[in-house]
């Protein structure tokens, strides 16, 4: 059974269409990054998955309809929606008491173990903690819940690089166990590149890229082209070109252009592009680049 | 035998197996109420503070007690039982009023605060239904505050009685014949009055709760001004005052509905001491005003539950 399955998911606010027929299928045991520009529909999609917003179309999360069964679903799903949503008046000990009280799958000892590694005292109130500590606390609460699906919406926004690194490290080392599924949205794409197993780009309410990271690595290739071979390289129809220190860097979609590695290796130095580079290539602001349709990357 | 000895040590060690079953429906309710106490400490601090202030005033007033007892012996204008009951009933009235005010302001903030500080996203990430959340919030003014007011009043009155007795004994007053008000009867009447008040005012609390879940800001104005505006409009446009009298009745009508305000000789009773014989429970329970109010209250709660599903941080 797929963990999340959506078909023709639509959501319109007054005048804007936030989700325009999203189809996706997220299997169990994956770490999926949902990446997109501001206003692309990321948060709306997550809210629909979490039962926080109504929607049209078909959506099953762990076999349930999230909108009508939110409280039941929340026994198996955890989320950190946005930073700093822990109530400011709550004490750390109260937060532990409360979650232990209402959540059947919460392991209090585990949460206390996570907190013991931080500087957070159990008597402090959330309002007294720094932003990074609040995130640590929230993560400790969430990781101590034996959930099947964890949804993170910009979990590290506004945190410094040390906290961000620590956040994803503990997620991978202490939480993820291949039977759980994690969906994360973030603008700090470079943080998650080596964390994800799957990558999705969303733009203007549509999924414009949906591939595993293995596929990503074998499919996209960036070539730093020798100056004298630029014309030859351009003839192979790269999907994007940029200039760095006077050198042309061309991004190729091997699946699309039917070029192969050896051909490209002759043109210059090869490397796997960063997610950021691909993001700019597919969704960047250039004429004719409409939601990746020109590249035909939609599955 | 073998299966038994296996089963006993295993089950407590396996929280995964028993936890979902043990997580009864009342646990989220219980913890939601705990949450309200953590978040809104005024629920118990305000009545306690009112009681403390009253007790302090009463302590000072005790210096006058021996004198007033003598005055009473010399046949004051009021029946002695009223004079005796007065400080005790004033204490009860003060705490009832405090509970009412706390309930009003609590209800106005209950579903607004969690949206204002964005914590609604945290609460909704846990397996607690909107129904449980709204019911837990509604039960604060409808159940918790009346019970709290009752418990604090009874405690306060007992302390007052002890102090009063001590002062009388020390002053060697010879009025030992009649020094205590009929406190037990007063407590029963107080409990009745608090239940009556909670039921009668339920639509007010629930309406305020609904507004707090709906309005983006200025919950007090949204809760109070529209009914007032309609009443004024009615008065100007039709020169009638149905709504005005309805609102007035909703605030104060419980006295006429739930108590016999005149004794069997037609003499008006004194509000400082209402004997048990003057309670009109049957009439109260059969008054349309009560049931209409409860229907409105239930409708507001249903709307508040529906609304919370859609609500996002503001």
Gyration radius of chain A, to the nearest Å? 21 Å
Summarize model confidence as the mean pLDDT of chain A: 87
CA-atom Rg of chain B in angstroms: 25 Å
Q: Helical content of chain A, roughly?
A: 25-40%
| N-to-C CA distance of chain B | 61 Å
Strand neighbour order, sheet with most strands of chain A = 5-6-7-3-8-9
What's the order of the H and E elements of chain A?
EEEHEHEHHHEHEHEEHEHEEHHEH
End-to-end span of chain A in angstroms?
20 Å
Number of distinct beta strands of chain B: 0
The 3D shape of chain A can be described as globular
What's the structural domain tally of chain B?
Answer: 1
- Choose one word for the global shape of chain B: globular
Number of beta-strand segments of chain A: 13
Question: Number of helix segments of chain B?
Answer: 14
Work out the strand percent of chain B. under 5%
**Pairing-aware structural class of the strands and helices of chain A?**
alpha/beta
Quaternary state of this entry equals: heterodimer
Q: What do we call the CATH topology of the largest domain in chain A?
A: Rossmann fold
Task: Give a verbal description of the structure.
The complex is a heterodimer of chains A (299) and B (314). Chain A is α/β, with parallel strands linked by helices and 299 residues long. Chain A folds into two domains: 4-204, P-loop containing nucleotide triphosphate hydrolases (Rossmann fold); 215-287. In chain A, 32% of the residues lie in helices and 27% in strands. Chain A is built from twelve helices and 13 strands. In chain A, the strands form three sheets. Chain A has a six-stranded mixed sheet with strand order 5-6-7-3-8-9, with helices on both faces. A four-stranded antiparallel sheet of chain A has the order 11-12-10-13. A three-stranded antiparallel sheet of chain A has the order 2-1-4, with helices on one face. In chain A, strand 8 (198-203) and strand 9 form a beta hairpin. In chain A, helix 4 packs antiparallel against helix 5 (131-143) and helix 5 runs parallel beside helix 6. Chain A is globular, with a radius of gyration of 21 Å. The two termini of chain A are 20 Å apart. The model of chain A is unreliable at 287-299 (pLDDT under 50). Helices cover 77% and strands 0% of the residues of chain B. By secondary structure, chain B is mostly helical. Chain B has one domain. Chain B has helices spanning 2-13, 15-22, 26-39, 42-61, 65-73, 80-116, 120-123, 130-170, 183-214, 219-238, 242-252, 254-258, 281-285, 288-310. In chain B, helix 3 packs across helix 8, helix 6 packs antiparallel against helix 8 and helix 9 (183-214) crosses helix 14 (288-310). Classes of the chains: A alpha/beta (299), B mainly alpha (314). Chain A binds chain B through residues 50-54, 70-75, 78-82, 84-91, 94, 97-99, 101-105, 107, 138, 146, and chain B through 15-16, 19-20, 22-23, 27-28, 30-32, 34-35, 38-39, 114, 117-122, 124-130, 132, 309-310, 312-313.
């Amino acid at each position: 059974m797929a963990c999340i399955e959506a078909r023709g998911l639509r959501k319109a606010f007054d005048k804007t269409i936030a989700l325009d027929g999203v189809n996706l299928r997220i299997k169990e045991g994956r770490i999926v990054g949902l990446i997109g520009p501001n206003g692309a529909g990321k948060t709306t999609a997550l809210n629909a998955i979490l039962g926080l917003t109504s929607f049209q179309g078909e959506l099953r999360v762990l076999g349930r309809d999230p909108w009508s069964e939110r409280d039941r679903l929340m026994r198996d799903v955890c989320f950190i929606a946005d930073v700093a949503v822990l109530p400011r008046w709550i004490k750390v000990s109260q937060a532990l008491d409360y979650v232990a009280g209402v959540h059947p799958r919460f392991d209090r000892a585990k949460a206390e173990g996570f907190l013991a590694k931080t500087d957070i005292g159990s008597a402090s109130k959330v309002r007294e903690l720094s932003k990074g500590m609040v995130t640590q606390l929230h993560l400790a609460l969430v990781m101590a819940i034996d959930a099947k699906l964890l949804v993170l919406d910009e979990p590290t926004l506004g945190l410094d690089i040390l906290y961000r690194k620590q956040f994803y490290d503990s997620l991978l080392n202490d939480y993820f166990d291949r039977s759980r599924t994690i969906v994360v949205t973030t603008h700090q794409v470079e943080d998650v590149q080596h964390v994800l197993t799957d990558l999705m780009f969303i733009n203007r309410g549509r999924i414009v890229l949906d591939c595993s990271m293995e596929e990503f690595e074998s499919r996209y290739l960036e070539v730093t082209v020798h100056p004298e071979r630029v014309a030859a390289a351009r003839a192979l129809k790269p999907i994007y070109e940029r200039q760095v220190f006077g050198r042309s860097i061309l991004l190729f979609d091997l699946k699309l252009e039917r070029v192969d590695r050896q051909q490209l290796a002759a043109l210059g130095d090869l490397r796997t592009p960063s997610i950021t580079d691909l993001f700019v290539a597919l969704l960047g602001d250039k004429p004719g680049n409409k939601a990746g349709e020109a590249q035909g990357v939609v599955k | 035998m073998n299966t038994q000895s296996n089963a006993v040590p295993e089950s407590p060690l396996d929280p995964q197996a028993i936890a979902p079953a043990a997580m009864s429906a009342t646990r989220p309710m219980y913890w939601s109420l705990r949450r309200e106490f953590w978040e809104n400490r005024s629920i118990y601090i305000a009545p306690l503070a009112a009681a403390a202030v009253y007790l302090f005033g009463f302590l000072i007033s005790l210096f006058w007690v021996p004198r007033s007892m003598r005055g009473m012996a010399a046949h004051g204008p009021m029946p002695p039982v009223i004079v005796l009951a007065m400080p005790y009933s004033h204490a009860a009235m003060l705490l009832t009023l405090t509970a009412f005010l706390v309930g009003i302001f609590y209800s106005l903030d209950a579903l607004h605060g969690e949206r204002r500080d964005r914590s609604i996203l945290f609460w909704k990430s846990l397996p607690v239904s909107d129904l449980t959340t709204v019911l837990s919030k509604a039960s604060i003014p409808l159940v918790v505050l009346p019970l709290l007011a009752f418990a604090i009043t009874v405690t306060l009155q007992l302390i007052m009685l002890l102090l009063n007795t001590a002062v009388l004994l020390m002053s060697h007053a010879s009025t030992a014949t009649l020094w205590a008000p009929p406190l037990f009867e007063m407590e029963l009447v107080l409990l009745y009055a608090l239940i009556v008040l909670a039921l009668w005012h339920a639509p007010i609390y629930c309406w305020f709760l609904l507004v707090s879940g709906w309005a983006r800001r200025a919950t007090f104005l949204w809760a109070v001004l529209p009914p007032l505006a309609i009443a004024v409009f009615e008065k100007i446009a039709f020169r009638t005052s149905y709504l005005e009298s309805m609102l007035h009745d909703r605030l104060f009508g419980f006295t006429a509905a739930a108590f016999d305000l005149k004794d069997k000789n037609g003499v008006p009773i004194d509000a400082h001491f209402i004997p048990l014989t003057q309670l009109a429970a049957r009439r109260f329970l059969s008054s349309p005003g009560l049931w209409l109010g409860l229907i409105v209250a239930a409708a507001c709660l249903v709307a508040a539950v529906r609304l919370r599903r859609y609500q996002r941080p503001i």
